[in-house]
Design brief:
Layout lengths: L1 H27 L9 H10 L16 E4 L4 E10 L4 E10 L16 H4 L9 E4 L4 E4 L22 E9 L7 E5 L6 E4 L3
Antiparallel strand pairs: 1-2, 2-3, 3-6, 4-5, 4-7, 7-8
Protein name: Secreted protein
Organism: Streptomyces daghestanicus
Keywords: Signal
Length: about 190
């Protein structure tokens, strides 16, 4: 009985962390009335002929945008390291195509324990090329991945918020490569 209560409490804490992270992200995207000349830096990088860096972490600018099958677009907005030794990656999965699409089952990965818990982003991994290690999505004591699960069919233009929680790489590792089956890979910066 106490294991069940601990599992529920842990799930509640993960949900609370995700909600708090999304609330902070939404608040940061508000725009407000700042006159900090955000267009000056983006136009100067465009004028120089270079592509804008995905690591310029301005409000509203994603860390990375990964293209997947059937017009799916995964926009990663934060990768936060916490004191508990975890990294939580948050963002949104959007249908950028012209037709309603289902999120592919392959995104769950190929581990039987994760697959039996339904559709998820359990196949995601962070690759630390400096430390030569790969970090997979964490699981709770019942084997469920600590990530967004059970996706609805996405209509054109529709998006859903997503999160994935990983073990944290060493503190001196500030960048990792984010990988998800069927999607392009990209380097993201870890904050915190």
């Amino acid at each position: 009985m106490s294991v069940r209560l601990a599992t529920r409490a842990r799930r509640g804490m993960v949900a609370l962390t995700v909600v708090a992270g999304l609330a902070v992200g939404v608040a940061g995207c508000g725009g407000g009335g700042d006159d900090d000349k955000p267009g000056a830096s983006s136009s100067s990088s465009s004028a120089a002929g270079s592509e804008p860096s995905t690591q310029e972490n301005k409000p509203g600018t994603p860390l990375a945008e990964l293209k997947g099958p059937d017009g799916l677009l995964l926009s990663l907005t934060s990768a936060e390291r916490d004191a508990g030794g975890f990294v939580t990656v948050s963002g949104a999965l959007k249908n950028d195509g012209d037709e309603t699409t289902n999120v592919p089952a392959q995104l769950s990965g190929n581990e039987t324990e994760i697959i039996r818990n339904g559709s998820s982003l359990g196949g995601a991994a962070l690759v630390d090329s400096k430390g030569k290690k790969r970090y997979y999505v964490l699981r709770d004591t019942d084997g469920r991945p600590l990530t967004t699960t059970n996706f609805p069919a996405l209509k054109p233009g529709e998006s859903v918020p997503v999160f994935m929680q990983f073990p944290a790489p060493p503190a001196d590792t500030g960048e990792v490569t984010f990988q998800l089956p069927m999607f392009s890979a990209d380097t993201i910066a870890i904050s915190g």
